[in-house]
């Protein structure tokens, strides 16, 4: 069969062209959804779908709109590389409508020296094949026969048997032939899930248990839920939810699991950068714990995310771990430009006498002495920001006086105490009526 080489003109130029983020969401500057994460050669690769605002030639302005896929990779879950476009709707040979903008949730896996990228478009599922996880990927000439639907997941069992799972008249599971591009027999429908529309399946195996995980609507929006089995073909036992529906409105959620350096992680999405349009989503990561009996403990979404932030990089304290009970909140730096990120806002009234604070876990102060700290801050009437280590009563690291200004300023202060290694940073407003902080950064 003839294979089609994907032409990706600007791939090299697009590498690492968007800012990537150490907290949630992990990717800034572009929308990403439906993250399929895998560990290949000790490195984490994420294959998300790529939401875009609808262009002029797509008339469904209120719907999902996706034209291509990128892949991102990291070796610490903090610093991410964007490897650029790996598949574009314009070059999919079997796709009749090259402007269908229907490149929904994909997945990728490795077998026999090749990486197989599965992606849906217009209710069919195609495969593109590469020698490396970041491509270049070469298209198969046709979509997979017999696998109509969306949201493919490719699971490879310990004995090397590949299974394709997808959403099409319910969740379907089917063995693949060794060539990875043809179904091996008829698919089996997962019938053991209580009513609640299911899509976005992700199958994995841990300690001999097969997990079929999926978005599941219990009330208004998608939660994440799962079944378990002792075989990839079922029968399945419904086990309930492991993530609640989002508190702020994003109708979908879509996820994947990896084990990386001894810790399990959940990749999922939320519409953080697009609070008023939930078809423009962003990928997040949080840790997952399993109970003794193999059940999945509930995962609470955080904005702090995972990984350690270096003290000498911009610490985005608006991605806090804990927020004080009153007089502190987070908002966009520019409400008309969400990708500029968020800021923390501290304010006071004469009546409020308690500390006004937030905390940010896992800041690495390294092993060399640090001398100063800088804030990006806005304080129309001036104020003081105090930084402490490990608790509200912990050692004062620095006290930064912020002069009154109607502009953003970048005041600095000498450090009062030296820290080494990883600590929780506490940020308090100890003086002033209104101080905003974009980031905090230490220097040698
Ligand atoms: O991204 C489009 C669709 O939204 C996915 O295919 C579903 O899983 C849901 O996340």
Write the layout of secondary structure elements.
Blueprint: E1 4-5, H1 11-14, E2 33-40, E3 43-49, E4 68-74, E5 81-88, E6 107-111, E7 114-121, E8 124-130, E9 138-139, E10 150-156, E11 162-167, E12 171-175, E13 188-189, E14 202-206, E15 209-217, E16 222-229, E17 237-243, E18 256-260, E19 263-270, E20 282-288, E21 309-310, E22 322-323, E23 328-332, E24 342-347, E25 356-364, E26 372-378, E27 383-389, E28 396-402, E29 412-414, E30 422-432, E31 434-443
The structure holds beta-L-arabinofuranose (FUB).
Structure description:
The chain has 444 residues and is an all-beta fold. The chain folds into two domains: 4-288, Tachylectin-2, Chain A; 309-443, Jelly Rolls. It contains one helix and 31 strands. It has one helix spanning 11-14, and strands at residues 4-5, 33-40, 43-49, 68-74, 81-88, 107-111, 114-121, 124-130, 138-139, 150-156, 162-167, 171-175, 188-189, 202-206, 209-217, 222-229, 237-243, 256-260, 263-270, 282-288, 309-310, 322-323, 328-332, 342-347, 356-364, 372-378, 383-389, 396-402, 412-414, 422-432, 434-443. The strands form seven sheets. Strands 21, 22, 25, 27, 28 and 30 form a six-stranded mixed β-sheet that branches. A hairpin with a 5-residue loop joins strand 10 and strand 11. 45% of the residues are buried. Bound molecules: beta-L-arabinofuranose.
